[in-house]
Amino acid sequence: MRAFQELVDEAAAADVSGWSFDWLNGRATEQRPPWRYSRLLAFELIEYFRGPLPHERFARDPHREVAAARRSGLEIVELRTTRCRMEFFEIGAVVYTLRKCAWWVLNFAVERHRARLERLDAHIRTHGTFVAHSTRTLIEVSRVPRRKAQQ
What we know:
By secondary structure, the protein is α+β, with helices and mostly antiparallel strands.
């Protein structure tokens, strides 16, 4: 494996505009949900940098979101939740992902998080991977037809 600084510099310079994650090919993998729509929330990786987030971990409760959708006049067609395994094979993949998904670790910067990145790099070099999980929820809804006012 290449040196820590080389991997970090390459990831820090990589283009993160758009919604393509092709740069991660061969560097990280993520199990895909059984449906095509993807909503990514990788708490293990987020919490590695931000610390424990017990309230945020459960803030996206699918059942509360379903209730809110129903209150808004929507009919629930389908609700599916799945947990997908993510594996990072090098520290550059972590840096790229945190730059790409900027809402995961607000104000992420290599220099600000260097010590944690170095510890995570050591973990990856020792164990061959860093495993995290993303939780994805699919809520398919349809509008409930409005009833015509009675005349």
